[in-house]
Amino acid sequence: MRRWRILAGVAVVAAAATVATVVALPASAETAAFTVTNSWSTGYQAQVEVKNTSSSPITTWRVQLTLPAGTTVVNSWNTTQSASGSTYTFTPAGWNGTLAAGASTSFGFVANGTGRPTSCQVNGASCDGSSTPTTPPTTTPTTPPTTPPTTTPPTGTTPVAINGQLRVCGTKLCNQNGKAIQLRGMSTHGLQWFGKCYNKNSLDALANDWKADLLRISMYVQEGGYETNPAGFTSQVNGLVDEAGARGLYALVDFHTLTPGDPNYNLARAKTFFNEVSARNANKKNIIYEITNEPNGVSWAGIKSYAEQVIPVIRANDPDAVIVVGTRGWSSLGVSEGANSGEITANPVNASNIMYAFHFYAASHLDNYRAEVQRAAASLPLFVTEFGTVTYTGGGQVDLASTGTWLDLLDRLQISYANWTYSDADESSAAFRSGTCNGSDYGSGVLSQSGTYLKSRISTPDNF
Ligand code: IDC
């Protein structure tokens, strides 16, 4: 268990805090319990449980955490967060302010840096129940008493242990022995929104129950993603690469461009991001790079130009990793913009050991798309880095018939895939029911219709 309470070391845990001195907040007793739910070498994810231990309801709460120099909050959920210097204030998200007597709620955040809070207050009083803010013991350890993700290659029967460093062989993805293989796994949702869904329990479930081979780490660039905090999101991605590796899973690092559709808009960011990620992870066998998610409204020539500038940045650090290039028309091989894979075969990216991305949403993309994939697979190495069981909106009816036809085709062609999404988003493409990630149970009982089906497909024996 990497879960630990900070009580022993830093004294942020829990406590009945009398808040009679706090103006504008009810005089009552609240506790705030801080738990690290996931950690990696450059950051961690934490959960704070706020409990109303009084005998009457409260209508709001406020938790203030002070972090040491070098550690910052990257993002948070189920809360509204503001910062003043190194003190972060967390208030209700809107719907979780009112707590009945004895009730509790929790919020979470991701920190860049390893420093744990040096002070915690709930409603202006110390989380340890005293009237002054908690001060840390001088012997506070700077590293948590946890086992960091292992950096030695996993042994045994995990996907990475069996297959090792991957490479492209002809139109296939091959393992370290030159055997053509197929990887099957799940994509995260946007880390800026669903970071809470990627924790010890959920990742253990993905590796052990789902028997997945692959975690796609979907880092949006816009919409509150990378561009708002490059260091923080880079750290979060690196942490998940480690977590995947610790479980013997491949990590597909997705630079999730979407709007604007021209990846060149983010060229400078892509170079910075991939330089940092590939330098740090160069010696890992489990990393695969996806340099742009879904180019749209841009020519193939524009995508190719982008790829030929980003790929050398990765290669300079990590010469042997597989790199996946998005394709025109939201990675439809051009079909969704009236083109087809012929423009790629006629003018391929000038690089080796690369694959081309194809995406589909089963309720929207039917036989004409399947025909194009079958045709393209004869000459291009393809990787389905994202697909949904639903419409291209991410919602609507789950189309199990079309999904089944698609996955049968991918299995037959040995095309690897990742499903959108391993999250509890309130949309039918999500594998978990809405609200699941607020808890710790990622078992069969909390799966959506889509998740139940995907798990049944992914957990069957691999072809390694
Ligand atoms: C969707 C999410 C949805 C989010 C939207 C905009 O499911 O919650 O509001 O993005 O960011 C894609 C994209 C992927 C989309 C998904 C479903 O790669 O970001 O996610 N989709 O619309 N391409 C086709 C479908």
From TrEMBL:
Pfam families: CBM_2, Cellulase. It catalyses: Endohydrolysis of (1->4)-beta-D-glucosidic linkages in cellulose, lichenin and cereal beta-D-glucans. Residues 134-152 have a biased composition (Pro residues). Residues 121-131 have a biased composition (Polar residues). It comes from the Bacteria. Residues 23-130 form the CBM2 domain. Its EC number is 3.2.1.4. Gene3D superfamilies: 2.60.40.290, Glycosidases (3.20.20.80). Keywords: Carbohydrate metabolism, Cellulose degradation, Glycosidase, Hydrolase, Polysaccharide degradation, Signal. The keyword Signal applies. Residues 121-156 are annotated as: Disordered. Residues 1-29 form the signal peptide. Belongs to the glycosyl hydrolase 5 (cellulase A) family. This is Endoglucanase.
